[in-house]
Design goal:
The protein is α+β, with helices and mostly antiparallel strands and 408 residues long. The chain is built from eleven helices and 19 strands. The structure holds fe (ii) ion (FE2). The site of fe (ii) ion (FE2) has 7 residues, from helix 5 and helix 9.
Length: 408
């Protein structure tokens, strides 16, 4: 439980806010490259600011300030009609990286990009997409750093054939076994969780101790300030930012990264466009239609009764907390250790900025950000006594075979 004042401090992101000042010290996903195919300017609502992407004759992207918008327009909707740029308003640098347009809304020079796998992989091995969630960004992030939730929220009562799992999360086999991930998550729902502070954020290790002295090791990451990097399948990882549109809406932006074959972008895009409405990437299953909840499905097939797309499960869970989760009434437990450590990091960063010490923030200051690689993110099954080195070796083996330079 935290005070209302503290909850406001860590959730609110508009200009002049404490958490907003932290987020503004990092590149923020602002749009998908897919959104640049139509006419400019492209409206963007980001960190409570009403902006638009413009492109000059040389092709350089800039995020400009927008004016004369109808006041009643919901902030996440793309405006119809003319977009008017405020010539006097702030302008922010914007660059395309791997299917995402990133913008820097902070003071001083923008930082370098870290050499994460999602940025190092060639364009053929990445695919980017986004989706709207109608809630504050922090609760969206916090579900992503809770390794226990997958065993319940994403529980599948029957296992699909993993060969049909392309492009979907938790449908692969676990590590190098024939056991579907869905079975591991279902049968071992209470992981032992370890959290280590890293230069990029947090490394979260979830250990599911199985039979025969075997342990399933799942390594996921919190990348400061508002991203996660998690395994999707043996072949792909997910790097996902939870980007505030304003205090009560956010987009998840994901770069899917493949260590093996080129990504089938058309298939990945088609899968996701079936679940989302353009132009604002709002999910077709949402609060207004009860997320297509089906009690018969809940009895026979899934924990939520809301279909097989795990994004919908997460969306229901985080939107169900209300526009901004009331943390004055929450009860954190032992499985929330990563959430507790993350909030500590965020509060420390807020304090550093209040002291004028931006160099104390993760990946800012004297560190060579471009030397930060990985992060390691994978599932492995190991001898219980040897899980740490076995997990590391599994990731190194995958990187050694990778057709692009994924060395760490
Ligand atoms: Fe989830």
């Amino acid at each position: 439980m935290i005070s209302q004042q503290l909850n406001d401090q860590i959730t609110r992101v508009g200009p002049g806010t404490a958490a907003g000042a932290v987020l503004r010290r990092y590149w923020q996903p602002a749009a998908l490259s897919d959104q640049l195919r139509g006419s400019f300017p492209v409206p963007v609502n980001l960190l409570g600011e009403r902006l638009a992407l413009v492109r000059d004759d040389a092709g350089t992207l800039t995020l400009a300030t927008r004016v004369s918008d109808p006041a009643e327009t919901p902030t996440h909707h793309h405006d119809s009609g003319d977009i008017v740029i405020d010539g006097e308003g702030p302008r922010y640098p914007a660059v395309e990286r791997k299917g995402v347009v990133f913008a820097y809304l902070g003071p001083d020079a923008a930082p370098a990009f870290p050499s994460f796998d999602c940025f190092r992989a060639p364009d053929s091995h990445v695919f980017a997409f986004k989706g709207l969630w109608e809630c504050n960004w922090l609760q969206a992030l916090e579900i992503g750093i809770d390794p226990a939730h997958a065993s319940f929220l994403h529980r599948f009562l029957e296992d699909e054939d993993p060969d049909d799992g392309y492009g979907k999360q938790f449908r692969d086999r676990a590590a190098d076994t024939n056991m579907p991930m869905t079975q591991v998550l279902r049968e071992y729902p209470r992981p032992e969780i370890k959290v280590d502070e890293m230069d990029y954020g947090l490394r979260i290790t979830a250990l599911r101790h199985m039979e025969n002295e075997l342990t399933h090791v799942r390594i996921t990451n919190q990348i400061f300030p508002e991203a996660i990097c998690i395994p999707m399948s043996r072949e792909m990882t997910i790097t996902q930012w939870h980007v505030p549109i304003d205090d009560e809406h956010c987009y998840w932006f994901t770069i899917f990264t493949s260590f093996q074959k080129p990504v089938d972008k058309d298939r990945m895009r088609d899968q996701r466009l079936q679940e989302h409405r353009l132009p604002d990437y709002a999910p077709i299953k949402n609060r207004s239609n009860s997320y297509h909840y089906d009690p018969a499905e809940q009895t026979a097939l899934t924990y939520t009764g809301m279909g097989l797309d795990i994004n919908v499960h997460d969306q229901w869970a985080v939107e169900g907390m209300g526009p901004i989760q009331d943390r004055t009434r929450e009860h954190l437990g032992r499985s929330d250790v990563a959430i507790i450590k993350y909030r500590r990091m965020l509060r420390r960063a807020i304090g550093s900025l209040e002291d004028g010490a931006v160099e104390d923030l993760p990946m800012r200051g004297a560190v060579d950000v471009s030397a930060i690689r990985g992060p390691l993110s994978n599932d492995a099954i190991a001898s219980t006594g040897d899980w740490s080195s076995a997990s590391f070796a599994a990731d190194m083996a995958r990187r050694a075979e990778c057709p692009w330079d994924a060395s760490v």
